[in-house]
Design goal:
The protein is an alpha/beta fold and 514 residues long. The chain has 21 helices and 15 strands.
């Protein structure tokens, strides 16, 4: 058994843990802190906030010690904040904060716990193990079940103490997570967990702790049987130390986790008190208000939400961060924001524009590739229609990223009111032409404006009415923007019904045209 710890510093009296959150997870951090201190009254909890302090948030009143991620010395942190989704980023900063705690807080032993963990008894055994080992890992499973893509160990927990390999381990881990802390099943990566699979083979002084009372979660319930006794919860023959409520929803506790569909609480009736008690803890700690807090790194500097697919594009297109060193910046034709909305190619005559962002979405979804195999040719219009109708609801794309595709359909599909009914492409039709040729101007019927006639004219000319469901009420302002200012009087509008019914979206699938 290795004994390469720094002996004078390893026997730390105060148990110290930390977690990592964005502001919308404040209630989870509070519940974690309360449950830990209830069983470790001399303990200390640090919370790394991967967010900004805004909206009157007063962290000094919390029972934990809060530190901002941007203040711990991560190289090019702003670029890292754009590179990763919120889940990826909250994982990527982990080894940097561990180094910060050891270097700047005088800590010799520390454990990380995911914020959605709750303690039910002390974890003294883990603390004792850190006097003998430098790294403690918990396996996802201690029975037969396959979750290969997620990794062998659950990084909802890791324990570390000062030892000879600590510096090299943290440096190695940091280098991997700077740009490779991604959820990418095709490459076999799941944030930091697959990298940690290598740790027992590379580094010495590693303990794999198999106590069934630690890190009980939906993925190991097949092998861990939780029972309630007069003295507390038992797991198999061990005392329940902490339960990992990964994927819990306070609105749908009965589902256990949004990440699984094997069980519901109706199947595991004995777990209902555990889950509903934890739900109540979250609500008592302000979850209903905290969960609505916006993520500071979730927006371009003009306030437009950043789609995850934009992050994927930036980190692949500008790997060295030279073309767009500040990808949050939206102003200017040369910004990354503008580049996302640029046409991905020169579209065929009278065919819709497909933007770089719309094609990135297509590239990332196998179901779309199967539904629209010739996306640049025969299936181009059908995919553009799907994108207009579903990108917002499926992936919360802002209208600014949908409008270029919708606009190209409106302009490209206008049939000029002439004997030949010839078509004109988008660059040949201006706003005045659309107004004057779709329906002669000059007469207002019952106060209806030329804008209303434009809507009717677009429908009569063959413009698919799926444009209307895209914008809802916003279709009004959009169509008005196509009309010359002198013809933009407002009037009565009519509702356009979608002529393109979609199949009901199935679980895990996409809304696709029939």
């Amino acid at each position: 058994m290795p004994h390469n710890l720094i002996q004078n510093e390893s026997r730390q009296a105060t148990p110290v843990i930390f977690t990592i959150i964005a502001r919308n997870y404040l209630a989870f951090a509070r519940a974690l802190t309360e449950s830990f201190l209830a069983h470790h009254p001399q303990g200390q909890v640090f919370v790394l906030l991967v967010d900004e302090i805004e909206g009157g948030l007063v962290l000094a009143q919390e029972k934990f010690i809060a530190v901002l991620a941007r203040d711990i010395g991560i190289p090019d942190f702003k670029q890292m904040a754009f590179r990763y989704t919120v889940t990826e980023l909250n994982t990527a900063v982990k080894p940097f904060f561990i180094e910060y705690l050891f270097k700047h807080r005088g800590i010799s032993k520390v454990c990380y716990f995911d914020p959605d963990i709750c303690f039910y008894s002390p974890v003294d055994e883990i603390w004792s193990l850190l006097d003998r080992f430098g790294i403690i890992l918990l396996p996802h499973l201690t029975g037969f079940l396959d979750i290969l893509r997620a990794g062998t160990y659950n990084l909802g927990f890791i324990g570390l103490s000062k030892h000879d390999d600590l510096g090299s381990f943290l440096h190695w881990w940091q280098q991997k997570l700077l740009k490779q802390c991604v959820v990418d099943p095709v490459r076999g990566l799941f944030v930091d967990q697959r990298w940690i699979d290598l740790v027992p083979g590379i580094f010495s002084s590693v303990c794999i702790h198999r106590d069934p009372g630690c890190d009980v979660a939906y993925w190991n319930l097949k092998h861990r049987h939780v029972t309630q006794t007069p003295t507390g919860y038992q797991v198999n023959s061990s005392l329940l130390k902490f339960f990992h409520f990964s994927g819990i929803s306070t609105d749908h506790v009965e589902l256990i986790s949004k990440y699984q569909n094997r069980y519901t609480l109706n199947d595991l009736d004995h777990l209902k008190p555990l889950f509903y008690d934890y739900r109540d803890r979250l609500l008592a700690n302000g979850h209903e208000s905290a969960c609505r807090i916006k993520y500071a790194y979730g927006y371009f500097d003009n306030g437009v939400p950043i789609p995850d697919f934009a992050r994927f594009l930036w980190r692949e297109t500008d790997e060295n961060c030279r073309r767009w060193p500040d990808p949050f910046k939206a102003e200017g034709k040369d910004s990354f924001f503008s580049w996302l909305n640029d046409p991905a190619d020169d579209p065929p005559r009278c065919q819709p524009v497909l933007t770089r962002l719309s094609l990135e979405l297509y590239r990332r979804r196998n179901d779309l590739q199967k539904a629209f195999p010739e996306v640049m040719n025969r299936d181009r219009r059908a995919y553009a229609q799907w994108y207009i109708e579903s990108a917002s609801s499926d992936h919360q794309f802002d209208d600014v990223f949908i409008k270029p595709v919708a606009e190209s359909i409106v302009r490209g599909e206008c049939i000029v009111d002439s004997p030949s009914h010839s078509r004109q492409s988008a660059n040949e039709v201006d706003s005045q032409t659309v107004v004057s040729r779709l329906e002669p101007a000059g007469h207002f019927v019952n106060g209806r404006s030329i804008y209303f006639r434009l809507r009717r004219g677009l429908r009569r000319a063959g413009i698919p009415p799926f444009i209307s469901p895209l914008f809802g009420p916003k279709i009004d302002s959009y169509l008005k923007s196509l009309i010359a200012p002198e013809h933009s009087a407002m009037g009565e509008t009519e509702k356009a019904e979608s002529a393109y019914p979609l199949r009901t979206r199935s679980k895990g699938g996409a809304q696709l045209p029939t």
